[in-house]
Amino acid sequence: MKTHTFRHGSYHIEAANGLDGCCDIPDDPGVEPRLDMIILEGGTLKALNTAIHESMHAEGISDDYVHDGSPDRIARFLWRLGWRLKK
After folding, report:
1. Is the pLDDT of residue 6 over 80?
2. Which residue, 4, 35, 72, 76, is the most exposed by fewest CB within 10 angstroms?
3. Do the Cβ atoms of 6 and 15 come closer than 8 Å?
4. CA–CA separation, 77 vs 3, rounded Å?
5. Phi (first) and psi of residue 32, to 5 degrees
6. What is the pLDDT of residues 16-70, one digit of tens each?
7. How far apart are CA 37 and CA 58, in angstroms?
8. Cβ contact 22:35 at 8 Å
9. Strands 2-6 and 21-23
10. Is 41 part of a structural domain of the chain?
11. Cβ-based neighbour number of residue 40 at 10 Å
12. 15 falls within a domain
């Protein structure tokens, strides 16, 4: 299991197949609950898009930006620069 710390806290990150993604948002900023994030497994453009999308949620970025296509545009930009998942 991998972990990463975002603005909302430390997340346990798992990759799953068949689920586009999921990210816990803490109810009380003063309490440190276990936070989980699920991203799409694999090294595809869609998997990169999902990782960006869920990390934006974990950073507390407004849903107005997360759901306006920003993750897709960022993923396509990084993909064109040559981003690929190392195995």
Report:
1. yes
2. 4
3. no
4. 25
5. -100, 85
6. 987 889 999 987 666 667 899 999 999 999 999 999 999 999 999 999 999 999 9
7. 8
8. no
9. unpaired
10. yes
11. 20
12. yes
pLDDT digit string (tens) for 30-40?
Answer: 666 789 999 99
Long-range contacts of 26-30, Cβ-Cβ distance < 8 Å, separation of 24 or more: none
User: What range does the domain containing 23 cover?
Assistant: 2-80
Distance CA 75, CA 87 (A): 19
What is the DSSP annotation of 15-42? EESS--EEE---S-TTS---EEEEEE-S
Number of domains in the chain: 1
User: Residue 38: inside a domain, yes or no?
Assistant: yes
In a domain, 11, yes or no: yes
Task: Sort residue 72 into left (φ over 0), alpha (ψ -120 to 50) or beta.
Answer: alpha
| Sheet of strand 21-23: strand arrangement | 2-6, 9-16, 35-40, 21-23
